[in-house]
Design goal:
The chain is built from 16 helices and 25 strands. It is globular. By secondary structure, the chain is of the alpha/beta class.
């Protein structure tokens, strides 16, 4: 047994500590001529990307950005996004990924929460940043200004040794209180998530990845980093472009092709229209629960690839339920999940006691892919990590064969086209109008997006109109959070529990209409 405090122990600990930047730079040294990033007409080899990342890291460091400092980014998908990830990983900084779809009050909250030492912004979104009353010490805009930095700055030497627990990303998630929270993801978690994904889905080091979903979300951000740590090529696409995705599928060997609910059918349609024959896809899709089964059968047949029947989160990565694939051509009638072997799981009741098989319980997890808590949210962290387990807020039942069936959400959440929406986010805005007595937002099944938010409102003053409430939401909430319907009901018509809480499931039943 080695004493961790002596020099021998420190050397051993140092030898076990890899970072995201260190693993990427190893690929750059081994394969400098291999293609790393492709975006429209731009192509960077690993050698070229390594030099640009080193120059950006040096520029940040000379402006006082160091370990633990936050660098915010507000941009559409572009290869500079990934250069910043790697440069921050080099110097130990943390990238706070801003959601450009948010309304100004939400975006201002997210920036203020992390107090960035620097902000990188695309020309497309620079105007929004300029209009906000946010103090920014250092700002860099993509385009000629940015290119001057990455081509004219002295590069750093080898990355400083970092503790793998150092944070790398802050990815924002919807908050139960109505404002986004910042999930902190470490180098350790990013490396573990990459290894788990490859082990469970059989993805090879050279398999390419298409980063089309927003890089401010887990899917594109993490699988891009994982690809660059392994030596594959990342194709950067500015949003969902079925024709471009089909073109890449026809010419490149891909590991995981992410397809979000609401987009699976459109992509299949483009595949058929263009007569695309895939060069090779290992796995496709995500969020199978929100995709019509016939669409799953069709897309897997067209791609010749199984569909990922996973249940994870920004906080957990693909685990805890990431070991189940829906076979090619199958329209599933059951979506039971298989637990990942790379984590531990418990199902517990309201008193955190384990429940018996067949009984519903909140899923709690621990393992190496787990995030490092929410940024500056000690009360939330104390609650969600109680007992040394992360409480996901999702209720499951364990079946006799060990699989897990999703039941409901403890933290009521609406998942719409890959985006998370908490009702409190919308309710908070509706209740700002003093003529509103109460409001509740529930989910409604939707053939395109999986689920959409619908609002029930009790008026204190009958003069308030649906248009006025919609305008209130448009000003302060992202487009995907807008209630798709607003129903006015009397205050006393809200179904409530004995403690006075609105019973959302009863409102959902009302949306479904009579059952007899």
């Amino acid at each position: 047994m080695v004493d961790s405090e002596d020099e021998e122990g420190r050397l051993i600990k140092r030898a076990t500590a890899s970072s995201v930047a260190g693993l990427f730079l190893m690929q750059a040294r081994l394969h400098p001529a291999r293609l790393a990033l492709v975006e429209s007409g731009r192509r960077l080899t690993y050698g070229e990307l390594g030099w640009r990342v080193a120059a950006l890291a040096g520029w940040l460091e000379r402006r006082g950005v160091g370990q633990g400092d936050r660098v915010a980014i507000l941009s559409e998908n572009r290869l500079e996004y990934l250069e910043l990830f790697l440069a921050a990983a080099w110097i130990g900084a943390i990238v706070a990924c801003q959601n450009w779809r948010l309304a100004e009050p939400e975006l201002a909250h997210c920036l203020a929460l992390v107090e960035p030492a620097a902000v990188l912004v695309s020309e497309r979104h620079a105007g929004r940043l300029a209009e906000m009353n946010t103090v920014i010490r250092t700002r860099l805009t993509f385009g000629p200004e940015y290119e001057a930095v990455v081509t004219g700055n002295n590069a750093l030497g080898s990355p400083d040794r970092l503790d793998p627990e150092c944070p790398l990303l802050i990815l924002y998630t919807s908050g139960t209180t109505g404002l986004p929270k910042g999930a902190v993801i470490s180098h350790r978690a990013e490396i573990a998530r990459n290894m788990v994904l490859r082990a469970e889905f059989g993805i090879a080091a050279e398999d390419a990845f298409v980063a089309w979903s927003p890089l401010y979300h887990m899917g594109a951000a993490e699988f891009s980093l994982g690809t660059l740590m392994a030596g594959g090529t990342v194709f950067v696409v500015d949003g969902f472009d079925p024709a471009r995705l089909a073109e890449i599928v026809a010419t490149e060997r891909l590991g995981w092709l992410l397809l979000m609910p609401g987009m699976v059918g459109r992509f299949s349609g483009e595949m058929k229209r263009a007569g695309i024959r895939p060069k090779g896809v290992k796995v496709c899709g995500v969020m199978a629960d929100l995709v019509p089964p016939p669409e799953i059968a069709e897309v897997t047949t067209l791609l010749g690839a199984p569909y990922a029947n996973t249940f994870g989160a920004t906080e957990t990565g693909c685990p805890p339920c990431s070991s189940n694939l829906i076979p090619v051509g199958v329209a599933p009638t059951r979506l039971s999940k298989q637990q990942s072997p790379f984590c531990e799981v418990r199902l517990v009741d309201a008193e955190d006691r384990e429940v018996a098989d067949g009984a519903p319980g909140e899923l709690c997890m621990r393992g190496p892919t787990l995030f490092s808590g929410y940024w500056r949210a000690p009360e939330t962290n104390a609650k969600d990590f109680r007992g040394g387990w992360f409480h996901m807020g999702d209720v499951f039942v364990r079946n006799p064969d060990g699989t897990l069936d999703f039941v409901d959400r403890v933290k009521y959440l609406i998942k719409s086209g890959g985006e998370n929406i908490y009702p409190a986010e919308i309710e908070r805005i509706l209740l700002q109008d003093t003529r509103v007595a109460d409001a509740a937002v529930v989910r409604k099944p939707d053939s395109k997006w999986g689920e959409v938010p619908v609002a029930f409102v009790a008026r204190r003053d009958e003069t308030v109109t649906e248009d006025e409430l919609r305008q209130l939401c448009r000003v302060q909430l992202a487009g995907y959070k807008q209630p798709k319907e607003i129903h006015f009901i009397p205050f006393e018509a809200f179904p409530r529990s004995a403690s006075g809480k609105i019973q959302r499931h009863e409102l959902e039943r009302r949306l479904a209409g009579p059952t007899d």
